[in-house]
Each structure stands twice: as C-alpha cells, then as structure tokens.
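From the methods appendix. Each design record in this collection lists the tokenized structure first, followed by the designed amino acid sequence. Records were kept in a plain field format so they could be parsed without special tools. The example shown here is representative of the layout used throughout.

RECORD:
FOLD TOKENS (359 positions):
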C-alpha cells in the first residue's frame, strides 16, 4: 500500500529512511543475531546504541558538557510532576499558561509547589503567546516553566522570558530538533519522543548538572533525576527500541545537514501553508501571526460541517489525521521534521480544490 501523508500531532510521521533502516535491522541487528527488541539493555550492543544516540543528540543540539541527558519513560505528562518534585526548594515557582499542556503542567505541579501564573492567554482561547511583565517574576522561585510550542492551538514562543538565576524549564515535546536552541538558556528541557524524535514510549530530559543535587533521596526511585543519571538512564529496563529509533532519527537529522538546515526546511513548509491560508477567503488560521508555530498549523472552514467534510475528503486523497483537537475543532496540520514538502504541496492543492467546490 502506498504511504499516506500523515499530519497527526503524535504519534506522528517518521522519516522514511529511518523506517527502512529499522525494517532492515528488525529481525537481526548488525551481527547480534537478534532484534533490538530482544537484546538485554545491559549488553554491549545496546550500550553502544544508547551511547551513540546520546552523542549524536549532544552534537545536534550543541548540548554543553555540564548538562546531562536522560532517556526516561512516562511521557512528557509525567514530567509535570517529576520536574517540580525534583527541583523543589522554596516550594514556589512561576509559569506561563499558553495552552492546554501548559495548563495541565500548572495543575499537576501545584500538588508539589505553589505556582504563580505570570501570564495567560486562556481567556482568548490560547490564540497567542501572552505578554509577560518581568517585574512580576519571583527571583527566588524554584523554576520558571513554559510550553515552548503549543500543539493543540498552533502557537510558539517567539522569544524566551529572561529568568536570571531561576532555572527555565521548557516542555519542547512538539518543537525539539525543529530548529537550533541555545540549551544553556534552560535549566531543564523535556520532550515526549512521539512527535519529532521517534515512537511513543521514550521521554528525553536534558538537565543542567547542578540541578541534579536538588533531587531528594525520599523521592520514588523511578522519579529521581539524580538516581536516573547515576545509572545512565538504566536504573530499570529503559524503552530500548524507542531509544534505538531515536538514535536513527538523530543520524537522519545529521544526514539532512543538522538543525539549521532542518529549520530552513520547516520554515519553508510552514510559510507555504500560512501563505495559502492568508490568501484564502474560505479558510482561516486563528493564531496571531507573531505567535504562529512552524510545527502545528490550525485552521477552520466556514462551518463545522464543512470542517468534517474536509477531513473526510482529505483522508480519501491520502492526507490523513487533519482533524483538529476535540477541544477546539477545525483542522490541524502537524508538519514535523519528517513531513516532506510534497505533503504540504498536496495539502495546499487539495485546499484550493475544496474551496472552489464549496464556496
């Protein structure tokens, strides 16, 4: 069967070369005589896989030497609790409420620390990144949290809040590896893998080394950053196959020219789609232009009925998973790294045809 263009927000499309390499290795990895899914995580073969994956990620993101990389489980949602549990000192923290997952972080983190909501765009249905007043930041907060890209609403922080000595924590689940970021501006970065990295089941955490000392021995072992780091992310059996797939994706990104090259491709894809939306009198993107995401593009047609028809007819043309999140409706095209330009071109052509037939 011919592959479709998969616009799912996650689990999302993977690079075809990555899938083909995994297919070739599936039954027997290298000279191991077994699949990665079968081998011990304590074996030399898997140790080489995880070590290379970390080395390639460090190279791609220019991760400083004083940051540790953890390959964890539980999804990004577990970090809503794990981060405040590990970083808690004064019991107070700042956060910006810019979307559904930012809001969920605040709700979960409040079980462990007192959250000061610095800014919010909730009242306007999260159609922009809210402005913040730096004079309201708590200089002694345990951390300052942002969700860098808001998957459901299609927004992205155009600039970062300057938090001084307070560690900036970023949920990068839907934008990690899409462009270069200065890792040193963050105290902690976390990301679920199932958007730009690999299959579901793996969560990346990049944490500044000094922050590991905040982890208390009283924390559950599986939720302790310091313990996970001490054991090289293998306190228990890690998500071995997901780490292997992530490693293949990191290699693919290097072959593509790295994150600067990937950013140029992503900006081009997003601009093509936004240009088509802005030129249309039929489709509408609700996001303020300065807050637009290059990973998740949301849009609507004149009626919910036409939205449903669009999604149905698009799927018949091999453009799948364009239905917007249930909380907002409409359509959403998630155009992560692995979405080729050809997918954007086909979507734009279908949009024009649909508009002409339904005006």
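DESIGN:
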């Amino acid at each position: 069967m011919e592959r479709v263009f998969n616009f799912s927000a996650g689990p999302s499309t993977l690079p075809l070369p990555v899938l083909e390499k995994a297919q070739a290795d599936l039954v027997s990895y290298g000279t191991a005589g077994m699949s990665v899914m079968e081998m011990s995580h304590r074996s030399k073969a898997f140790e080489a896989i995880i070590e290379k994956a970390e080395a390639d990620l460090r190279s791609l993101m220019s991760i400083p030497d004083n940051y540790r990389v953890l390959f964890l489980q539980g999804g990004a949602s577990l970090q809503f609790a794990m981060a405040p549990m590990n970083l808690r000192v004064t019991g107070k923290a700042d956060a910006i409420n810019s979307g559904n997952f930012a809001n969920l972080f605040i709700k979960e983190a409040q079980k462990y620390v007192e959250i000061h909501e610095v800014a919010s765009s909730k009242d306007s249905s999260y159609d922009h990144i809210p402005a913040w007043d730096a004079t309201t930041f708590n200089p002694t907060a345990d951390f300052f949290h942002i969700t860098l890209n808001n998957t459901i609403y299609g927004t992205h922080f155009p600039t970062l809040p300057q938090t001084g000595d307070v560690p900036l924590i970023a949920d990068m689940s839907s934008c990690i590896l899409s462009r270069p970021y200065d890792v040193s501006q963050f105290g902690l970065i976390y990301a679920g893998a199932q958007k730009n990295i690999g299959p579901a089941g793996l969560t990346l955490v990049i944490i500044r080394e000094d922050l590991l000392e905040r982890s208390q021995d009283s924390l559950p072992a599986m939720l302790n950053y310091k313990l996970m780091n001490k054991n090289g992310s293998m306190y228990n059996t890690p998500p071995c196959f997901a780490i292997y797939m992530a490693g293949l994706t990191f290699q693919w990104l290097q072959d593509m020219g790295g994150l600067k090259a990937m950013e140029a491709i992503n900006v081009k894809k997003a601009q093509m789609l936004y240009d088509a939306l802005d030129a249309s009198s039929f489709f509408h993107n609700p996001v303020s232009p300065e807050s637009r995401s290059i990973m998740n593009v949301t849009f609507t047609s004149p009626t919910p009925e036409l939205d449903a028809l669009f999604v149905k007819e698009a799927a018949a043309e091999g453009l799948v998973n364009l239905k917007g999140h249930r909380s907002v409706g409409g359509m959403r095209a998630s155009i992560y790294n692995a979405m080729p330009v050809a997918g954007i071109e086909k979507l734009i052509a279908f949009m024009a045809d649909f508009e002409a037939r339904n005006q």
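APPENDIX NOTE: The chain has two domains: 16-255, 258-358.
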